[in-house]
Specification:
Length: 223
Amino acid sequence: MLKNTLAIAALLTGFSLIAHAQDTPHRFEAGLELVNYSPFAKQQYSYATSQLNDKAQWASGAVFRYNLGRFGLRSGISYNSGSSITQNPSSCADCPVGGANGRDLRVRLGGQYAAIAKAPWLYVFSEFYYRSFLSKGNFTGGLCGCLDTEVTVKSNGIGNSTGLGAKMRVWKHFYLNPEVYYDVLRVPNTVTSNDRNSGTTQQYDTRTKVQAPAVRVNAIIAF
C-alpha cells in the first residue's frame, strides 16, 4: 500500500512538471471535486450494507482556498449517497436479503504549503474533516421466511487527510488539481436493529477504521 502511494505521488510530481503549472499563485481559488478514488477502502457492515461509498466518487463536492504567498487556507465539502442490495448466498439459506440507502457528508478545513519557492504550484497539505454518515436498510427472509428487520447505522466523527497536490494550468485561470493523500478515520457507529414482527429493538456500537491512500482531482478557477 505504501509503495502504491509513493508511486502515485511520483507520477503526480512528474505530470505537474511536464504541464508547466502556474508561475504565480492567485489569491482565491474555487472549484469542483471531479473525482475521488479510494482503491483500498474497505467496505463494512455486510449485514447493514456497508458504508455505501463507491471506491470512485464523481462530482461529489466543492473546494475553496485562500492563498497567502506560499501558505494557503483550504476548505471543502462533499456529499455522497448510494444504495446497495444484499442477496441470499447459496451457502447461507438462513441469511436475510434486502437493501439499504445511505449518505455520507464531509466538511473539511485545513492548510497547505508550497515548500519549493520556485514551484509554488506544488504543495503539501493537511486537513481535518467532520464526517456524518447514515444508512437505513430493510431485510427479510430467513429459513422461516418470517424475518422483517429494519437496520439503521449512524456515525459521526473527525478524520484527517494529509498529502501532496499540484496545480496544472489548462487555460488562463482554469486549472486541473490532482492530489494524492492518506486518509485516516476512526469513528464510533451506532447500529439499531428493529424487528417489525416482534416489535423488539436492539442497539449496539461498533467502530469504523480507515487508513488508506486515495487520489482526487479538482477543477479549479483561480482569481
